[in-house]
């Protein structure tokens, strides 16, 4: 899986792992993400395709028609969501639910500079 990442992404993961170890955390949290963003001088556009890859295997996801996902997603998701994407590698389906909303909010916070404005 790691071979699919760019060199910059591999470096970011290594920085995050080192920071998590230094902070005695067994996860990569907001502090590590902030360190990566500042350390690598990353610019994050919350409106870009930041959720275009599978969170499990990093494969690019593909749009899939709603009628194709009915038997793979919970009924309340099928009835309330219109757009779905699919990872062909691990057969996982994604939609813009509460997890997506929380991640978007977190990314927007991380991409704000100290003055509270987008860089
Ligand atoms: Zn996948």
Task: Kindly describe this structure.
There is one protein chain. With 119 residues, this protein is mostly helical. The chain has two domains: 1-42, no CATH class; 47-119, N-terminal domain of TfIIb, CATH 2.20.25. The chain has helices at residues 7-22, 30-39, 66-69, 75-80, 98-110, and strands at 62-64, 84-87, 92-94. A three-stranded antiparallel beta sheet has the order 1-2-3. It is elongated and about 45 Å long. The mean pLDDT is 81.
Helix proportion of residues, in percent? 40-55%
Q: Tell me the domain tally.
A: 2
The rounded distance between the terminal residues' Cα atoms is: 32 Å
Global shape: elongated
Report the strand count: 3
Query: Which ions, cofactors or small ligands are bound in this entry?
Result: zinc ion
Order of H and E elements: HHEHHEEH
List the SSEs and their pairings.
Layout: H1 7-22, H2 30-39, E1 62-64, H3 66-69, H4 75-80, E2 84-87, E3 92-94, H5 98-110
Antiparallel strand pairs: 1-2, 2-3
This protein binds zinc ion (ZN).
The site of zinc ion (ZN) has 8 residues, from loops.
Q: What distinguishing features does this structure have?
A:
119 residues; mainly alpha; N-terminal domain of TfIIb; 2 domains; three-stranded antiparallel sheet; 8% strand; binds zinc ion
Summarize the structure.
The chain is built from five helices and three strands; from the N terminus they run ααβααββα. The chain has helices at residues 7-22, 30-39, 66-69, 75-80, 98-110; strands at residues 62-64, 84-87, 92-94. A hairpin with a 4-residue loop joins strand 2 and strand 3.
């Amino acid at each position: 899986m790691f071979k699919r990442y760019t060199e910059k992404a591999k470096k970011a993961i290594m920085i995050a792992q080192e920071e998590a170890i230094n902070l005695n955390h067994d996860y990569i949290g907001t502090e590590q993400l902030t360190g990566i963003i500042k350390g690598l001088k990353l610019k994050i556009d919350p409106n870009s395709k930041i959720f275009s890859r599978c969170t499990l295997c990093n494969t690019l996801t593909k749009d899939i028609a709603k009628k194709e996902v009915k038997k793979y997603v919970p009924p309340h998701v099928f009835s309330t969501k219109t757009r779905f994407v699919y990872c062909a590698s691990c057969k996982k389906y994604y939609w813009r639910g509460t997890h997506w909303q929380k991640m978007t909010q977190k990314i927007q916070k991380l991409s704000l500079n100290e003055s509270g404005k987008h860089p």
